[in-house]
Amino acid sequence: MKKGIIIFLIFIIIVGIVLFIVLTQDREEQNMNQDKNQDTSKFIGSNYPDNINFNLDTGTVILNSGYEMPLNGIGTYSLTKEECYQAISSALDAGVRLIDTAYMYHNEEEIGRAIRDSGIPREEIFVITKIYPTQYNNPEEAIELALEKLDIGYIDMMLLHHSGSGDVDAYHVMEKYVEQEKILSLGLSNWYIEELDEFLPQVNITPALVQNEIHPYYQELEVVPYIQSKGIVVQGWYPFGGRGHTSELLNDKTVVEIAHHHNVTTAQVILRWNLQRGVVVIPGSSNPDHIKENTEIYHFSLTDEEMQLIQNLNRNEKHDWY
C-alpha cells in the first residue's frame, strides 16, 4: 500500500515537472513572438525615431537644421510653363506649403512667380530645389541661377540631385550659402546607404533631408530607417509609383480594400502610409481636385495590420534609374 502511494506521488511530481517545463517554454515563445511583433511594429513605422520631431498633429517636422517643414507638399517634375504656374497656384490655394523643384525641371521661374502672386507670406512657404551633377563643377553659378530664377529671396532647402563627380565640393559651396542665409537647409536626393557612408564624413553640415524614390512596390525597408537613424528626414518621390505604374498601384487590391475601410481614396492611403513610416510626401499633379485630395490625409489612421499589409506589397521594384 505504502509502495503504491509513493509511486503515485512520484508520478504526480514528474507530471508537474513536465507541465512546468512545457508552460515555461510556451511563455518564452510567447514573449519572443511579442518582442518580434513589437520590432515589426517599429519597422513598419508605427513609432518614429526619437531623434526626429515628426508631428502628425501639426503636419510638420523639425529638421536637424532647426527649421520646420510641412509633411506633405507637391512635386513638380514634368510640370512646366503655364501648367506649372496654375498647378502651384492651385496647390497654394489648397493649403500646400511645401514645393519641390529642381534645375532640371525647368520650372523654377514659374514656381517663383506663383509664390509671389499668391500673396502668402514668404516665410509660410517651404521651397526645395536641386542642382544637377552637370553643375557641380561650378556650384556658385548654379546656386545664383536658382536664386535668380525663383526670385523669392532665399531657398529653404537645396539638394544635390544625385551623387556625381564633385558632389562633395559642390556641397561645401552650398554650406557657405547657408552661412550667408541665402540657403537655410541642405539635403541630398537619390542617396543610399553606401553613398551616405562615404559622403557624410566629408561634409560639415549634416544633410537635413534625403529624398528618394519610395512607394509600396519599392519601400527601401533598410534605407529609410538607416537615414532616420542619422537624424535625417526622409522624403519620398514617386509615391504613386511613377509614370506607367500609377494605375497598377492605385488599383492594387490590398490598397483598394484598405481605402474602402476608411472611406478614402487609394492615393490618400498611400500618402498616409508614408507619413506613418515617417516619410514626407511630395505627390505631383496638375489637377486641382487631386492636389486638394492629396492634402486630406490627416483625418484617418492606418492600423498596424494595415501598415503590415502594405509592407507586404514590397517588390524592391524601382521605377527610375537614380
Structural features, described:
This protein has about 325 residues and is an alpha/beta fold. It has one domain: Alpha-Beta Barrel (TIM Barrel), CATH 3.20.20. Helix content is about 45%, strand content about 15%. It is built from 12 helices and 11 strands. The strands form 2 sheets. An 8-stranded parallel β-sheet has the order 4-5-6-7-8-9-10-11. A 3-stranded antiparallel β-sheet has the order 1-2-3, with no helix packed on it. A hairpin with a 5-residue loop joins strand 2 and strand 3. The radius of gyration is 25 Å and the shape is globular. The termini are far apart. About 5% of the residues have low confidence.
Backbone CA Rg: 25 Å
Give the overall shape, derived from the CA principal axes. globular
Corresponding CATH architecture: Alpha-Beta Barrel
Give the overall pLDDT as a whole number: 90
Order of helices and strands: HEEEEHEHEHEHEHEHEHHHEHH
Q: Quickly count the domains.
A: 1
* Highest CATH level, the class: Alpha Beta
**What is the CA-CA span between the terminal residues?**
85 Å
Beta-sheet strand percentage?
5-15%
What is the element layout, followed by pairings?
Blueprint: H1 2-43, E1 53-55, E2 60-62, E3 68-70, E4 74-75, H2 81-93, E5 98-100, H3 108-118, E6 126-131, H4 139-150, E7 155-160, H5 167-179, E8 183-189, H6 193-199, E9 209-213, H7 223-229, E10 233-237, H8 246-250, H9 253-262, H10 266-276, E11 279-281, H11 288-293, H12 304-311
Parallel strand pairs: 4-5, 5-6, 6-7, 7-8, 8-9, 9-10, 10-11
Antiparallel strand pairs: 1-2, 2-3
